[in-house]
Amino acid sequence: MSVTRLLDDIRSVGRDPRSGGYYRPVLSPSELDLRSWFVGEAERRGLDVETDRNGIVWAWWGAPASGSIVTGSHLDSVPGGGAFDGPLGVAAALEAIDVLRARGVAPRRSLAIAVFPEEEGSRFGVACLGSRLLTGKIDPDRARALTDADGDTLADVFARNGIDPAHLGRDDETLARVGRFVELHIEQGRGLVDLNQPIGVGSSILGHGRWRVRVQGQGNHAGTTAMTDRADPVVAAAAMVGAVAALARETPDARATVGRFEPFPGGTNVIASAVSFWIDARHPDDAVTLALVSRVDAACAELAALHGCTVELREESWSPTVGFNRDLAAELSTALGGAPLLGTGAGHDAGILSEFVPSGMLFTRNPTGISHSPEEDAEDADVDHSAVALADVLQGMLS
Ligand code: GLV
Ligand code: MN
Ligand code: MN
Q: pTM for the whole thing?
């Protein structure tokens, strides 16, 4: 086997033929197909597979024990995502075990591959939901009440998939099994391309959060309502989106995005009654991110009043800036012959876990530097080299 061949097996799962991108929401038929693929590949390798009470899938080489080495990533995707964001780390982990076995490595510690649910937060709105539940970083009552776009609660969706929602939440026994966590991931920028390096080591994750904005206006008839008589939330929300971009541009090093914008009910000849849109804001200094969002909040209130609407801005997800464990990052770099250290603007379960256990990341070169898009890419040679690099770092930890 090879990582490219493993990924070939899932190439058609959740693929939108129009865009060429993937949509694999957590516990949707496509993500469930990927989970089955993972379980099959793990069992073919003689690994013991279990799903824990937070919906995280674990495949064990050796008996589950406290202080084990854990690698892995996620299988869910954003809408229109690339082929590698998530599955690359899972496939590389499976293949790394083959590499270690071919080298005759007899591990002195157990190794597990973990597959985290809802890393992207694309279905229920909270990024890295599985690792947050495991570590107690989200209140289980709040998690159970989260809803998807169809109005289904997380509790119902988990229950339908055999995960008892009553048992969600911090799981000290499972967490204690994680002695170290190393996540391999496609790079989501041009760092490695510019350095002409196939693999890098994560040094930091940009702090980021998500806020939902709901603008309420007056639904009405597109033909019979004079322009002066309207309280149109789409017009108000469009101005708010402009304000988000303008305020972020005024804030050095900030990034702010509105990638989801939903007028309700959404008809060509209907003045909407409400709009929901979502802001993703990021900055290396968490205080700056929060100050930016406060300024956005004030601008939204002003713009809502100007257009005869009301507005409410609510935090959905917050992930502070992470500096990965320096000793582990240095060890990973040395094991890879001096691989460069890179910060990333993207969030990862390794970032959540890093508060609890030494955690690190490896990045695989992405020639386009594009991600969360079908244009995300990786050369076959780099994809296959990912498993060798992961095996190289794991070997040192296992022996
Ligand atoms: C996850 O990829 C994120 O950074 O939003
Ligand atoms: Mn990812
Ligand atoms: Mn992603």
A: 0.97
